[in-house]
Write a structure and sequence with these properties.
Distance between the termini: 41 Å
Strand content: 25-35%
Radius of gyration: 22 Å
Order of helices and strands: EHEEHEEEHHEEE
Helix content: 10-25%
Number of helices: 4
Number of strands: 9
Structural class: alpha+beta
Shape: globular
Length: 275
């Protein structure tokens, strides 16, 4: 089953996309509203028939209830995504998720979520999710706006807007590689930048441990290792499967599981380039 939060346990939805959640529900016949039925019976009077009126009242589920209902309806498909060959329509898991602002094509501020998992053979799986910053509790002022940004933002936009049908950035492996480069290197601005330490880069927001996430997947590729010289790609040396999509939600649990990368003093730029 899709990983679920423990009932009544404290938790925070760091990302919640009402629009995409509603779309998934509609596409899969999932009713998110609930109805409370009630009836009213007239007083009992001798020789007078009793009347009984019935009605129903629509009530809204909490975020927790909506997430559990969708998880139950999708069944094992999201969590088994990486035990099966690509492509996966949905994916879900629990682990460390990095949050960063994404400099993209939309006029509204965007956000990027990145996490890692493993496939059935123990090989690395990178999950890169693009969404709206408005669906988080973060703000643009929570980051330092320094460093490298990618010119592939239009390809990412096309991938999400077309729901995976097109992107215009070479083939799917090239698009996957570019998405992973954005997740690992956006904000890089000097020799001290570490792809394994997002806090050393610009645009980064936070790290959430023990974070439960669920996403719609629009691109899912396994890399041809004869084609890519990954040993020359810093932070990507053991990359194998790249999954790109849009998050439905991300929920962190126990207190202390979220580390914010508060804005650091602006650093002199060693290198800023746009690809």
């Amino acid at each position: 089953m899709t990983p679920r939060a423990t009932p009544n346990a404290p938790g925070t939805y760091l990302y919640w996309s009402p629009r995409r959640i509603e779309k998934v529900a509609q596409d899969n016949g999932i009713h998110l509203d609930r109805f409370r039925r009630w009836s009213l019976t007239s007083p009992s009077i001798p020789f007078v028939p009793q009347l009984q009126l019935g009605n129903s009242e629509r009530t809204t589920r909490t975020r927790y209830e909506v997430a559990q209902k969708i998880s139950k309806a999708l069944g094992d498909r999201p969590v088994k995504a990486f035990t099966m060959p690509p492509p996966a329509p949905f994916a879900a898991g629990t682990g460390t998720v990095e949050f960063a602002r994404y400099i993209g094509a939309e006029p509204k501020p965007e956000v990027l979520l990145h996490t890692r998992s493993q496939d059935a053979a123990g090989r690395r799986v990178d999950v890169v999710m693009f969404g709206s910053l408005d669906n988080t509790e973060f703000r643009t002022t929570d980051t330092v706006e320094d460093g490298w940004t990618s010119s592939a933002f239009w390809a990412v936009h096309n991938l999400l807007a077309s729901r995976g049908r097109e992107h215009g950035w070479g083939d799917d492996q090239e698009m996957g590689m570019e998405a992973l480069k954005i997740a690992l290197h956006q904000g890089s601005s000097g020799p001290d930048t570490d792809p394994n330490d997002p806090s050393s880069r610009g645009f980064t927001l936070a790290r959430a441990r023990n974070c439960q996430w669920c996403a719609v997947i629009y691109l899912d590729v396994e890399l041809d290792h004869d084609r890519w010289l990954l040993e020359n790609e810093v932070g990507m040396e053991d990359a194998h499967r790249i999954v790109v999509g849009a998050p439905l939600w991300a929920r962190t649990g126990a207190k202390g599981s979220l580390t914010r990368y508060w804005p650091r003093q602006r650093r002199p730029l060693w290198r800023m380039r746009t690809r």
